[in-house]
Amino acid sequence: MTWAIDARVPVTVLPEGAPFPDGKPAAWLGEVTPEGAVTQAMPGAAHPVACACCGGRSPVGEALGVLFQARARGDVPWFDRVLVSPALEAELRAALREDILAAARFRLVEPA
Prior knowledge:
Blueprint: E1 9-13, E2 26-29, E3 37-41, H1 59-73, E4 81-84, H2 89-98, H3 100-105, E5 106-108
Parallel strand pairs: 1-4, 1-5, 2-3, 2-4
């Protein structure tokens, strides 16, 4: 039997009003960091507009990239998943559909 392993970091939109879940360490992508998040990224430009490394990337795609690099370098505590503010859901879906780097590193998981 062949098993397909998807090693991308799971990303879930936290439903409006839902408490931040316990369990696996999670990063947060949104405005206010909830208690329990191991790290947080705000969508926004970290580099000049259209710089050579991220020209054309959306703020959410860029924020996911910042989270991934910080985790890989050990600059933030390890996290096994990313939870996202519902206010960013449309931008998240667009980033995972259109940003090749974000799509290679992260996968959307619909809430149960």
